[in-house]
Design goal:
The complex is a heterodimer of chains A (about 500) and B (about 150).
Chain A: H1 2-15, H2 18-35, H3 42-49, H4 58-83, H5 92-142, H6 145-162, H7 167-181, E1 184-185, E2 192-193, H8 207-225, H9 244-266, H10 274-286, H11 299-314, H12 316-322, H13 328-339, H14 347-351, H15 353-384, H16 389-408, H17 411-429, H18 435-457, H19 464-467, H20 469-486, H21 488-499
Antiparallel strand pairs in A: 1-2
Chain B: H1 2-21, H2 36-57, H3 70-89, H4 91-103, H5 111-132, H6 141-144
Helix pairs in contact in B: 1-2, 3-4, 4-5
The chains are: A mainly alpha (about 500), B mainly alpha (about 150).
């Protein structure tokens, strides 16, 4: 307990420096600003704003990026409530009752409640991250290559199971991501692999190039094809602060949502996406009158929003302690960290405690900023919702191009990104979901390395993965969830849940 | 149709990967060479490709939708042009070029608006990236030398 206090106060001493507070603040503001633009999800937002952080020291840059991430998350909830467009999968649930509240003239209360419960959930889960950081890092340091490999398999198995649409296609995307990661110089022998003889590919594909191509560019192409239908709420925003009755109705859903979201968020492989769904289902089951749900029940905003934010925060745990990003957004954080010369993993906490604890402390500060700036600035956010897409897409494109060029000051990167944009567009057309591709790509190199190390240690015996107890259990769970997911009854349920 | 094409795409990708990885030594299980991992991945991907084609043969009839060329051509084209132009001509030229070429991708474009927007965005990006964040991106080397 005392160690936790010491670590956190060390973190706060790093995070409250003038520069870092400023960066956190700017991050939250621009994150919200971009995240609120309809059709721009958190992944695109972070990818687009990445170049803003290039010139700061790693701690400052990551604090800013984390701020951008929270801002983008909150922006996604705002669009869900006001125009019925969720920024990403985790705010889908918020559209159900949040948008209904907005139509009934209670948009302000919905937004206010979302901000307040998010702050509460953020505070709790910052503590969870801080408390679990040390033990999990110690655990991670005990992991040998076989355990590590199996842990990544588990993460990817979760990602397949939780992806939208076909399991086969999600699995293909993961494998394709891992394959793309294998391009470049071989880790051990230094041989060029699958580079088509191009020098540009000798160092492998840059993560940001892939992410901006497949998410940034391909998303623009998809949005341009679908004529816009924005259901902007014309009714008044109304008062922001929930009244007594609202608070009474929200408090238990908020607590339950925080718990569910925090626990699910820790799971490898995008468990965070389950939080809001689980919370909504729970609240509907527990409600005296379930028929109110879907018609503007405040519990349907408070619970899922708390779960959303708690999960968004605890998703940092596998990344910071194990170096395994659980979802595409965290994969992007890995990309950002690598640009700043930090390899995520258990060694970050011991080698750069300033960065580790400073970032955790800034999570809480970021959440506080969100609360303070969002409520007064709602008027401005509403105006942004009316920016037409015909102007937005070229601005996004320009930001992306400047960012890509600036990573290496390399013009061929821009062309490569355009190629991946085309590739991502084709993938979307053929019904592939690109998020697992990114996850596979980020984990690919580490997976191959651990696989090869484990096999050297076991003298080429694959049984090592099963005989090692930890690794065996992890693989058994992975197999179990995949089998579970292909059961016809479960499949149908999942489709219903994810399509609603 | 969707799964037939999806399966074909995966098989083509797997074939390209296998072709590229084929000269690399496979090694043994005891000591895996650089070729083994990519080749095995290519094998799994091809298998999924076949499985997807089987689902098509069993009656999958999802449409792949329309394939308009206008969006990809101008959006991706504008990015490539930006990449080619940014070093010799600088952001002051490449920026507006990108916005204007990209504008051809949308049929909602209003030309007066987009030209003003291109100018505004370029100034904004110059101030933000060059002067506030001091990224080493050329501004207009032909005019002011950097």
């Amino acid at each position: 307990m005392e160690a936790l206090y010491d670590n956190l106060s060390h973190g706060f001493s790093v995070a409250v420096s003038f520069q870092n507070l400023g960066l956190c603040f700017i991050g939250v503001v621009v994150g919200t600003l971009v995240g609120i633009l309809p059709g721009v999800g958190p992944i695109a937002t972070i990818a687009m704003l990445l170049p803003l952080t290039f010139n700061f020291d790693p701690t400052g840059a990551l604090i800013m990026l984390a701020g951008i991430y929270y801002g983008a998350q909150y922006g996604g909830s705002t669009t869900a409530i006001l125009i019925n467009i969720p920024g990403e999968a985790t705010s889908v649930v918020t559209t159900l009752d949040g948008h209904q509240m907005a139509r009934q003239g209670r948009a302000g209360v919905a937004l206010g409640t979302a901000a307040l419960v998010s702050f509460f959930a953020g505070t709790v889960s910052t503590l969870v991250v801080a408390a679990l950081g040390v033990p999990l890092t110690k655990l991670a340091l005990l992991f040998g290559p076989a355990e590590y490999f199996s842990l990544m398999v588990l993460g990817l198995a979760f990602a397949v199971v939780l992806a939208q649409g076909s399991l086969l296609k999600a699995a293909a995307m993961i494998l394709l991501g891992v394959l793309l990661a294998a391009i470049g110089t071989d880790l051990e022998t230094g041989e060029a692999r699958m580079t088509f003889g191009l020098d540009e590919l000798a160092d492998g594909i840059d993560f940001v190039v892939l992410a901006m191509g497949v998410f940034g560019f391909a998303e623009i192409l998809r949005n341009l094809e679908n004529p816009e239908s924005r259901d902007v709420v014309r009714a008044k925003i109304g008062r922001l602060l929930p009244n007594k009755a609202d608070i009474k109705a929200s408090i238990m859903p908020m607590l339950r949502g925080t718990g569910l979201g925090a626990v699910l968020g820790i799971l490898p492989g995008n468990g965070a996406v389950l939080g809001p769904f689980a919370s909504y289902t729970t609240e509907k089951k527990l409600a005296k009158d379930p028929s109110r749900f879907g018609k503007g029940a405040i519990e349907g905003v408070a619970g899922p929003e708390a779960a959303n934010n708690a999960g968004a925060q605890t998703a940092f745990i596998p990344l910071l302690t194990l170096g395994i990003p659980p979802n595409a957004v965290m994969a992007l954080m890995v990309g950002a960290m690598t640009i700043h010369g930090i390899i995520p993993g258990p060694q970050v906490m011991t080698k750069s405690p300033d960065l580790f604890w400073g970032m955790i402390a800034s999570m809480w500060i970021g959440n506080a900023f969100l609360l303070v700036i969002n409520l007064p600035m709602i008027g401005i956010w509403v105006k942004l919702l009316n920016v037409p897409y015909r102007l937005m897409f070229s601005a996004i494109l320009l930001f992306c191009c400047i960012g890509i060029y600036s990573i290496n000051n390399d013009t061929s990167d821009v062309a490569l990104t355009a190629m991946f944009g085309l590739f991502g567009y084709v993938l979307i057309k053929l019904g592939f979901e690109p998020a697992p591709l990114l996850l596979g790509f980020v984990l690919g190199r580490l997976m191959e390395e651990k696989l090869r190390q484990a096999l050297i240690l076991s003298r080429g015996d694959f049984m090592t993965f099963v005989e090692n107890p930890v690794s065996g259990v992890l693989l058994a769970i992975s197999l179990g969830i995949v089998i579970f997911a292909v059961l016809p009854a479960v499949r149908k349920k999942k489709e219903e849940a994810l399509s609603s | 149709m969707q799964n037939l094409l999806a399966g074909l795409l995966l098989i083509v990708i797997a074939a390209i990967a296998a072709w590229q990885a084929s000269p690399l030594p496979m090694g043994t299980l005891r000591h895996i060479g650089p070729g083994m991992f990519p080749i095995s991945l290519a094998g799994f991907i091809a298998l999924i490709g076949v499985a997807l084609m089987v689902t098509w043969a069993r009656g999958e009839r999802n449409s792949t939708g329309r394939w308009p060329l206008r969006g990809p051509l101008f959006i991706l084209g504008s990015a490539v042009i930006f990449g080619l132009a940014v070093r010799p001509l600088g952001l002051a030229v490449a920026g507006p070029m990108l916005v204007i070429v990209a504008a051809f991708a949308s049929h909602e474009t209003r030309w007066v608006e987009i030209i003003a927007f291109a100018a505004g965005m370029t100034v904004f990006c110059l101030v933000l990236f060059k002067y506030l964040l001091s990224l080493p991106i050329p501004v207009a080397p032909w005019l002011i030398g950097y």
